[in-house]
Amino acid sequence: MTLNIIGCGRLGKTLARLWHTHGLIKIQGIVNRGLPSALRATDFIGAGRPCRLQELPPADLTMIATGDAVIGDCAVQLAEAGILRPGDIVFHCSGALDADILSVVRQNHALLASCHPVKSFADPAHAVASFAGTYCGIEGDPQATERLASLFETIGGVPLPLRPGCKPLYHASMVMAANYLVTLMACSLSCLEQSGLPSATARKVMEPLVRSTLDNIFALGPADALTGPIARRDVQTVEHHLRALRNWQPDQEVLYRLLGEFTLDLARSRTCAPPLQEMAMEHLLKTGNRLP
Q: For the chain, which residues make up each domain, given as ranges?
């Protein structure tokens, strides 16, 4: 089986090296923006040759591992290059885009897919060594996803079949879990620092709390892992929090209330308080004020 790569950056060269060292695929053309980066990719992979997109040879697989903004343009150029054959597979590795972004290559009777490894590729050498067990969201034409799933499984990947049209929602979940957790921690730590703790101490204080919370989420599920004043419907404590945040950083008070409304919904999936207590908490989170 042969592979061409368009956009052989950190993700592309990680996957190519894994497939090459496992003897699964013959790496052919590598298309990058410049020759130096293409040469670095071939050195890391141990195979392949730099070329322009128009110079790519025919291949069973073409992986587009560029940034999201140019995937569609690359597909157009690939279709116009005249190298695709019926049954060839073209796939991209974006987390947010569906395989349909490649639909122009259907005119060449190629098959489409996308496969997104849920992993950081900041250090390709480390990514190669630790790839086993990586979940890979995959969707597209059934014949293409079947072949790609087998290739990813052979290097230790765990394919996750996705519903058509759901890639943006899938990727949003990753952003909320990873990126927004960092933002939420920054807000939390700033509250501790405003309380008088040095930055390093604030992180030390928070670490065991956050780690145990994450452990409980994955062991018990979100609803059973939830604790704290909203779970208890402790209106007085939440009111104190809102007043303090409003006086210091009004934007954080707004964030607290918005997340609090979602937290209250989660708490209600597990337990319900007396009606007046539920109403009082809901009103406080919506308005920032107690019930009249």
A: 2-165, 169-287
E strands along 118-157, which residues? 135-140
- What are the tens digits of pLDDT across the range 181-216? 999 999 999 999 999 999 999 999 999 999 999 999
How far apart, in whole angstroms, are the C-alpha atoms of residue 240 and residue 244?
6
Helix pair 199-220, 180-194: axis angle to 10 deg = 140
CB count within 10 Å of CB 199 equals 11
pLDDT digits (tens, 9 = 90+) for 77-101: 999 999 999 999 999 999 999 999 9
CATH H-level, domain 169-287: superfamily: ProC-like, C-terminal domain (1.10.1040.20)
Class of domain 2-165: alpha beta
| pLDDT for res 292 | 82
Cα distance between residue 267 and residue 272, in whole Å:
8
| Contact status, residue 29 vs residue 4, Cβ threshold 8 Å | yes
What single letter denotes the amino acid at residue 278?
E
Torsion of CA 24, 27, 31, 36, to 10 degrees: 110
**Ordered alpha helix ranges (H), 22-134:** 35-45, 68-81, 124-130
**Which of 36, 35, 29, 21 is closest to 5 using CA atoms?**
29
pLDDT band at 155 (very low <50, low <70, confident <90, very high): very high
CA gap 279, 270 in Å, rounded: 17
Q: How far apart are CA 250 and CA 238, in angstroms?
A: 15
Q: CA–CA separation, 33 vs 18, rounded Å?
A: 23
Tally the residues of the chain: 292
Q: Which of 67, 108, 69, 117 is nearest to 90 (CA)?
A: 108
